[in-house]
Amino acid sequence: MSFWEVTLFLWDGFLISLLIFAVTLLCGAPLGLPIAFCSMSKCKPLKAVSKVFVWIIRGVPLMLQIFIIYYVPGLLFQTPVFSHMDRFFFQNYSISDAGRIVAVLIAFTINYACYFSEIYRGGIESISRGQYEAGYVLGLTKSQIFRKIILKQVIQRIVPPMSNEIITLIKDTALANCIIVCEIIKQAKELAATKAMVWPLFYTGVFYLLFVGILTIVLGQVEKKLKYFRS
Amino acid sequence: MALLTVNDIKKNFGKTEVLKGISFSLEKGEVLAIIGSSGSGKTTLLRCLNFLELPDVGTITVGDKVLFDGSDDTTLSDEAIRQNRLHFGLVFQNFNLFPQYNVLQNVTLAPTLLKKGTPQEIDATARGLLEQVGLSDKLESYPYQLSGGQQQRVAIARALALRPEVLCFDEPTSALDPELTGEVLRVIRSLKDRDTTMIVVTHEMEFARNVADTVIYMADGVIEEMGTPEEVFGNPRSEKTKAFLQGTQNIY
Ligand SMILES: Nc1ncnc2c1ncn2[C@@H]1O[C@H](COP(=O)(O)OP(=O)(O)O)[C@@H](O)[C@H]1O
Ligand SMILES: [Mg+2]
After folding, report:
1. Ligand 1 atom closest to Cα of residue B37
2. Residues B70, A191: Cα–Cα separation, whole Å
3. What contacts B199, CB < 8 A, 6 or more positions away?
4. B202 CB within 6 A, ligand 1
5. Which of B26, B112, B137, B248 could make an SS bond with B4 (beta carbons 3.0 to 4.6 A apart)?
6. What are A183-215's pLDDT values in tens digits?
7. How many angstroms separate the CA atoms of B244 and A122, rounded?
8. pLDDT over 90, % of chain A
9. From the alpha carbon of B38, which atom of ligand 1 is closest?
10. A184 phi/psi in degrees, rounded to 5
C-alpha cells in the first residue's frame, strides 16, 4: 500500500472520530445545561440525584461506560440491541458498525454532558450575587437577568475550561475502538494485523495533531473575541 | 401626605434580630441620611425597601399604595415584588455595573427591557443622565476602563433612568479612594437640587450634615435618634449618638 492509500484508509477512520467528536459536542453541550441546573436546584432530592449521577459518570472510566451502554441493553432484553440496529436501521448506509457507533455516541454524549455541566455550574456560581441584585433592583425578571446579564459573563469564564475539554474529546474518541468501531486507530491496527505495517499507527498522531491545531486556533479566536470586557 | 412611610419594620436572620422596629416617613424631594456604626442594620433596611429582603413585620407604603404588609399572610408573587421594586432605586457600595456593557448600554439596558419608551427616547434620556453625572465623554467605555468614582456615577445614572420615586444609596463612597469621593457626593448633592427623594446611608458626616433634610442615627437595629442635621449633630439627645459622633470626630 502506498503512503497515499494508507492516508485515505486512515482518513476513513478519522471521519468516524470526527463524527463522534461532532455529535458529542452538539448533543453533550446543550444536555450539560439541564444537568447543571439540576445540580444547583433548590429542590434537594433533584439536586442529590443529579450530583450522584455526575459523580458516577465522572468517577467511572469512559471505556467502561461504553461497554455498559453497548452490552447492558442486550443483557436486559436478551437480544443484542445495537447489532440489530446495524441490520434494520442502517442497512442502507455504508457504515457497517452503525449500531456500535450509536452506542459510543450515547456513552460519549452522557459522559461529556456531565463534564460540561460541572463547568457550567462552576461558571454560573462564580458570578457575584451583586450582578443578580443589580438586575433585581432595576425591576428585571429572573429570566431577563440570566439571559441579558449573567449568560455572557458565564460564557467568557467557561471558554478556557471548555476548550480543554473539547481538545480532550477528540483524543478520547480513540476509546471507541474498545467495541470495534472503525475509528482511526482501529483502522491503523487493522493495517498492522493484515499488512504487517506498524508505521500507520504512529502516523495517526499527525491527524490528531492537525485537528487539535485547528481547534486551538479557533477556540483561541473565540476566547479573544470575548476578552473585550473584564468581570 | 408622605411619599414613603415605613412602619415598624422588623427583620430577623435566623435568631439574630437585625431590624427591631424601624419607622419613619419621607416627603417628596426630601433627603434622608442614615448614619450608624457597621452592623447596625442600615444595609438590611435599604435591602428591605428594595425588596431584596422581605421584612418579617411592618408595612411599607409609597403614596397611598401599601407595597408590603407583614400582617398579610398571602405571599407576594415574584411579579408583585418586581413591580414594588420599581418604586425604588438602589445604588450599591461596590457599583455592580454590568461588565459586558459599555456605559451607555448599562444605563439603557433596563429601560429597554422594560419597554419604558422608544429606543430613541431611552437613548436620549440615558445620554442626558450621563451628561448630568459628567460622563458624556465615556459613553463607549467599559466599566473596567473607569475609575471607581466614574463607575459609581454610571451606577447613579443607571438607577435614575427608571425614574424611581425614592433613590437609595448604600455607602456610595465607601469603596472609593478618598480623592474620588468628592465627585460622587457632588453628583448626589446635585440630585437634591432636582428634587430627587433620596435615602443615603453614609459615613460622610460633613455630607450628611450639609445635604440631608433629616438624619437618622441607627444603632443595633433601632432608630436611636432622628431629627434635622442641626439637632442630631449639634445637639444629640441620646448618649449613644453622642458617643458615636465623638468617635467619628476622633478619626480625623
Ligand atoms: N443575609 C444575612 N444573613 C444573616 N445575617 C445577616 C444577613 N445580612 C446581614 N446580616 C447581619 O445583620 C446585621 C446588620 O447587617 P447590615 O444591615 O449589613 O448592617 P450595616 O449595613 O449597618 O453595617 C449584621 O450583624 C449582619 O451580620
Ligand atoms: Mg452596610
Report:
1. 22
2. 79
3. B26, B32, B34, B46, B49, B166, B167, B168, B169
4. no
5. B26
6. 999 999 999 999 999 999 999 999 999 999 999
7. 43
8. 86
9. 23
10. -60, -40
Domain layout of chain B by residue ranges: 98-163
Mean predicted confidence (pLDDT) in A173-177: 95
pTM score? 0.90
Interface test with B, best of A133, A137, A156 (most B CBs within 10 A): A137
Predicted confidence (pLDDT) per residue in A31-61, tens digit? 999 999 999 999 999 999 999 999 999 999 9
DSSP string, B42-58: HHHHHHHHTTSS--SEE
Q: What is the mean pLDDT of chain A?
A: 93
Provide the pLDDT for residue A86. Answer: 62
The list of chain B residues with pLDDT below 50 reads none
Using H for helix, E for strand and C for coil, what is the string for B207-252? HHHHHCCEEEEEECCEEEEEECHHHHHHCCCCHHHHHHHHHHHHHC
pLDDT score at A118: 97
Question: Cell 455516541 maps to which residue?
Answer: A105
Q: Who's near A182: CB < 8 A, 6+ residues apart?
A: A12, A13, A16, A97, A190
Asked if B50's CB is within 8 angstroms of A134's CB, the reply is no
d(CA A45, CA A48): 5
Q: What is the pLDDT of residue B77?
A: 93
- One DSSP character per residue, B64-91 reads TEEEEETT--SPPPHHHHHHHHTTEEEE
A134–B92: do the CB atoms touch at under 8 Å? yes
The whole-number average pLDDT for the span A136-145 is 97
Q: In chain B, which residue's Cα lies nearest the Cα of A153?
A: B100
In chain A, what are the domains? 3-228 (1.10.3720.10)
Record: contact A231-B100, CB cut-off 8 A = yes
Q: What is the secondary structure of B93-107 as a DSSP string?
A: TT----TTS-HHHHH
What pLDDT band is residue A110 in, cutting at 50, 70 and 90?
Answer: very high
Q: B87-100 burial, b if ≥16 CB within 10 A, otherwise e?
A: bbbbbbbbbbbbbb
CA-closest candidate to residue A17, choices A208, A219, A227, A203? A208
| B162 has a chain A CB within 8 A of its CB | yes
